[in-house]
Design a protein that fits this description.
Blueprint (H helix, E strand, L loop, with lengths): L1 H5 L40 H16 L11 E3 L2 E5 L22 H13 L8 H6 L4 E7 L5 H14 L5 E6 L5 E8 L2 E7 L7 E3 L4 E3 L4 E7 L16 E6 L1 H4 L7 H9 L3 E7 L6 E2 L4 E10 L5 E8 L4 E5 L3 E3 L2 E8 L4 E10 L8 E2 L3 E3 L2 E2 L5 E3 L5 H13 L7 H11 L9 H8 E3 L7 E3 L9 E7 L8 H6 E2 L12 E6 L2 E9 L2 E4 L4 E4 L6 H4 L8 E4 L7
Parallel strand pairs: 12-22, 25-26
Antiparallel strand pairs: 1-2, 3-10, 4-5, 4-10, 5-6, 6-9, 7-8, 11-13, 13-18, 14-17, 14-20, 15-18, 16-17, 19-22, 20-21, 23-24, 25-31, 27-28, 27-31, 28-29, 29-30
Helix pairs in contact: 2-3, 2-7
């Protein structure tokens, strides 16, 4: 049962793409402990290279974790075996906030850097693709394993000599689907995104439907000499392909985006995130007052002043907190002391009449760089008193006489809330239908009466493919733990069995199949997490959203 419950903790972790990434540091990094560039007087080959380096360092300073939205599973509608692991959300360092935990696997981290620095999609989906992009190669060599140590050492020295800042360093193990991808930023330094515990490989095997994920990964830095084969922390193997992919060969005229230039000029060594006071899952109601907080950390030893701009969404009204107000534009000129964290708060109110099921997105800039919180989802939710009552009723359960959704109905009724649910099999069977002619892939059934009760970003599974654009945007590979609410009912299929749970609190849930409440902790669940993401389908039902 721990393995099944641990599935839900995957919400804050990597749902990785086809490529397996290299071993990371044994110690888990704290994202609040930022690193700043060591030398602000560096010179660069071009402004494009500078944008790449500074953007990569912004991810490093943020210590970003990225969970893939996993929106698009089918690369070709005619070929269901051709599956793309993730239609990426393209999270910047500023949108990788503590309320939207994000993590990049090795190739996708490099993808993000190039996208935010230069606005180009280099599509580094797998190390296999990088191996085949010969028009980008600055170095390419196959090690057969028959070379002497001296010959391999010579290859490594040639490899290092060919490096330029902004290069993608790649290795693919001989006969394996995995590989490592890292970004060279010059001065003997690499930046990479990888798992945090040695020996855990974040990859997905389609032939066996097994996904391994690392409970916590991070963006890290290392000296390039640590790549050597003789190193205990080696990121390169003694058999396979070693390459340097240089996308600027293919994009010689690439220029920094406007935001990248603002990042260079204003945000080097500055960590920014925008947070929201909305309840768990960012579910809000018309009339709610939401406090937004810009949290800005200056990791340098120099005070700085930043212009902050927020454009009030059309479905919200300004209440308080701005330094200046010009129509719907709020502004601050904020002093950010060296080595300190500065917090700036303001309050907006959700207007009456905003439609249920809609999203409210923010539009804010710090130093000219976009910094937004997660969208607010407008939908019914249980009150704090109702959530407390549900938890109290779950406390009383010891030897239940009913199970599954019947037990969920009984718990709700004991808390004074009436809900009506079909069996878990009927709910999940009715929500998912076969995709076209496939018996192994599914899409969401938009005619299901439970559609309006699906918690936002809380449905999916490895076999679920595209549906409509709206619901496709909500689809995830696994639910996100920081969006679950007390009383949420989780239904999933695994090994042809349908399993049902109810959320008790942020760390626990009740197994409605047995009536037990088990504690879920990240540390104790690593092994289980690594082996439980092969679920066919899952959905998180929030009954309050369907109560009239």
């Amino acid at each position: 049962m721990k393995k099944l419950l641990a599935f839900l903790l995957a919400l804050i972790m990597i749902l990785s793409t086809l490529a397996a990434c290299g071993e990371g540091d044994k110690k888990t990094e704290d994202p609040s402990k930022a690193e700043s560039p060591e030398d602000t007087e560096r010179t660069f080959e071009s402004k494009a290279v500078e944008a790449l380096v500074v953007t990569a360092e912004a991810f490093l300073a943020r210590k970003a974790y990225v969970q893939y939205d996993d929106q698009s599973m089918v690369a070709s509608l005619k070929n269901l075996t051709s599956i793309r692991r993730a239609e990426r959300a393209k999270n910047s360092p500023e949108t990788a906030t503590g309320q939207f935990n994000v993590y990049s696997n090795c190739t996708e981290f490099v993808y993000d850097v190039y996208y935010y620095a230069l606005g180009i999609d280099i599509v580094t989906w797998t190390t296999k693709l990088l191996e085949n992009y010969t028009n980008r190669h600055a170095f390419s060599y196959y090690i057969t394993g028959e070379e002497t140590e001296e010959e391999q050492a010579k290859v490594f020295e040639d490899f290092k000599s060919a490096m330029k800042a902004g290069d993608i360093l790649v290795c693919r193990h001989k006969g394996d689907t995995g590989g490592n991808t890292l970004l060279y930023i010059g001065d003997g330094k690499i930046i990479y995104s990888a798992r945090s515990e040695k020996g855990k490989s974040p990859n997905y095997n389609y032939s066996t439907n097994v996904e391994n994920i690392e409970p916590r990964g991070t963006v890290s830095t290392k000296d390039v000499d640590k790549l050597a084969l003789s190193s205990d922390d080696s990121y390169f193997w003694d058999e396979g392909w070693w390459g340097i992919s240089r996308p600027l060969i293919e994009y010689p005229d690439a220029q920094p985006t406007e935001e990248a230039l603002n990042r260079i000029n204003n945000l080097q060594g500055i960590v920014v995130e925008k947070l929201s006071s909305a309840p768990s899952a960012n579910t809000a109601l018309p009339g709610d007052e939401i406090t937004f907080t810009f949290q800005i950390k200056n990791t340098t030893d120099v005070d700085t002043t930043l212009e902050i701009i927020d454009n009030v969404p059309q479905d919200m009204t300004y209440v308080s907190g701005a330094e200046t107000v010009d129509g719907t534009t709020l502004k601050w000129n904020a002093n950010i002391p060296a080595g300190k964290v500065t917090k700036i708060e303001y309050v907006l109110k959700i207007n009456d009449g905003v439609a249920e099921g809609s999203f409210i997105t923010s539009d804010s800039y710090v130093g000219g760089v976009s910094a937004n919180s997660r969208p607010l989802f407008i939908g019914k939710r249980l009150t704090a008193e109702q959530r407390t009552a549900l938890a109290a009723e779950m406390d009383k359960i010891s030897k239940p006489d009913v199970f599954g959704t019947d037990l969920a109905e009984k718990i709700y009724a004991s808390a004074g809330i009436t809900i009506e649910l079909e069996s878990a099999d009927a709910i999940i069977g009715g929500l998912f239908k076969a995709y076209k002619d496939s018996t192994t892939h599914f899409e969401l059934n938009l005619e299901s009466p439970y559609l309006k009760a699906i918690a936002p970003t809380m449905y999916g599974g490895y076999q679920v493919v595209n549906t409509t654009s709206l619901w496709n945007k909500l689809r995830t590979k696994g639910p996100q733990v920081n969006q679950l609410m007390v009383g949420d009912i989780v239904i999933m299929t695994e090994n042809n069995k349908t399993l049902t749970y109810m959320v008790y609190d942020i760390n626990r849930m009740m197994n409605l199949n047995t009536g037990d409440v088990e504690v879920m902790t990240l540390q104790d669940s690593k092994t289980a997490i690594l082996s439980t993401l092969g679920n066919d389908k899952f959905v998180v039902i929030r009954p309050a959203m369907a109560i009239q």
